[in-house]
Amino acid sequence: MDSTAIPHLGQSGTSSPVPQHLGQAATAACNLATNFLAPVKTERQIYENSMLEDDPNANSQCPAVNSEEQQQQQQQPRWGPNHRGAQELAGLYSRGKRIQEVICLGVCCALMSCDFLFILLRVKLDNLSTILLAAFCGVVTADFVSGLAHWTADTWGSVELPVIGKNFLRPFREHHIDPTSITRHDFVETNGDTFAVTIPVLCKLTWDFISLPEADIQRRFFWICFWYELAIFVAMTNQIHKWSHTYFGLPWYVVWLQEHRVILPRRHHRVHHVAPHETYFCITTGWLNWPLEKLQFWYLLECCIERLTGCRPRADDMKWAQKRS
């Protein structure tokens, strides 16, 4: 047999030569699948370094090596509602913060309703494709924005910072040491901040609808729809995040959306909760997590910022995680 060919059975059952370069290409493809497409975290890493959320609020742990280690684990919970740091952080949720969240939710919902009516009045058969394209662009952008905001709040800053510390960074610190705490938050506490950040965009859209002539609105219709749909997806991000931590009692349509990767799936988001929480930050759909991780996008950003400022990433997060007993 020719050394440059590999025998291969065709449909007729006879042997037919396959060029050697095809075999090399197949080997290269296998190597790519093994290395580049390898999972970011293994099942073992997830098990050993994250709270098992299908056993809600339990301080789930890996089997201890000996009785002394087991006793130490029992005295110092790694995470969950009995963690001292989680309890301290939960106690920092103030009445003033609650009032701010209620006001922002009310204002945001009023603006959303107003802008929705303005858009609905201009929906035509020939601009449906524009609306759908704007929706797709909006959800991809929202996923990246959620990742950028999540990475920033997880990685930098301190709860001791004035204004933003207790009001905006505190929930991120609490969430890492008691991940299922979000499932015990009501709609206001869960969504107050994400609804609040959309208010400037919604205000601008409302002003444009009121002040611009109809010709200008039609000319900008794609961008109007894009910004409106982006605001909707951003506003709903933390509710979607809450659903990704809710393992029981979800409506069937939420489970369907998760299973079909329309919104953040539960199993996918568990990768982020593997200590030290350094990857998979996008929490609207999670579509961008894998490509950003393979590009080492967050790691390279952290290296640049650490070199420029001297600040260590997730230092404050680690401080609260160590307050166990």
What is the compact description of this entry?
With 325 residues, the chain is mainly alpha-helical. The protein contains 16 helices and 2 strands. The protein is 62% helix and 3% strand.
Give the DSSP E fraction (strand runs of 2 or more residues). Answer: under 5%
**What would you call the shape?**
globular
- Cα distance spanning the termini: 72 Å
SSE run: EEHHHHHHHHHHHHHHHH
Query: What integer value in Å does the Rg equal?
Result: 25 Å
Mean pLDDT: 82
**Strand order across the largest sheet:** 1-2
Q: Largest sheet, if any?
A: 2 strands, antiparallel
Fraction of residues in helices?
Answer: 55-70%
- The number of E-state strands comes to 2
Overview of the structural elements:
The protein contains 16 helices and 2 strands. The chain has helices at residues 20-35, 43-49, 67-75, 84-91, 95-120, 128-155, 164-177, 187-197, 199-211, 214-219, 221-244, 252-259, 266-269, 289-294, 297-309, 315-321, and strands at 5-9, 15-19. A two-stranded antiparallel sheet has the order 1-2. β1 (5-9) and β2 form a beta hairpin. α5 packs across α8 (187-197) and α9 packs antiparallel against α11 (221-244). The radius of gyration is 25 Å and the shape is globular. The N and C termini lie far apart (72 Å). Residues 1-18, 32-37 and 55-65 have low confidence and may be disordered. Keywords: Membrane, Transmembrane, Transmembrane helix. Residues 140-316 form the Lipid desaturase domain.
